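We emphasize that the prediction below concerns an isolated chain of 183 residues; any contacts that depend on oligomerization or on bound cofactors are therefore not represented. The input was used exactly as deposited, without trimming of termini.
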Amino acid sequence: MAALYRMATSRGGGLRVAVTTRGGTGRIVLSRQFGGAVMIAAWNPPVVRLLDLHAGCERDPARAARILGLGSLPLSAVPLLLGGRLPAGHITEDPAGGGWVALAAPGWRCRVRLAPEPWRVVALETPDGTRITFSSHTASVPGRVRITRPDGTWFTLELVRLEWDTSTVLPPLPGLPPCGAAG
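Result of the prediction step, given as a token string:
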């Protein structure tokens, strides 16, 4: 999968997000609208890397999902949700009803709201209070995603282009020193 999004945040706009996957590996690249990439979050389970290209260093990967506003959701689940699919996990009906189900997998859990005709994800909540809404669907693929953190900050992604090309080759990642390392 390869997808390009326009991104606006509660702090401003003019950003782009590119999501690229191949098999279980992937990249999320955050770029300025008329500039280069500023951050890359990459995963090749079980390894996650967070590259701060602006600072020229590699950040603690445990912070990747939080920095991206995803709460406890693993990065590998992001392309599935953006592609209109549920990540693998144990699904049970949520006692609250209303189309909500509980989704649990090793190391994380969330509540997901589904809607029929066609079946699609319309909302997701993580235990830390992060809420993600999915709207403007084409079939099951959301055209708009809004992530709201517990502190009130938000991010909105608007789909510009989506390709289901399974031959995508992910480029090698740059080698950067750890942030805070003496150089």
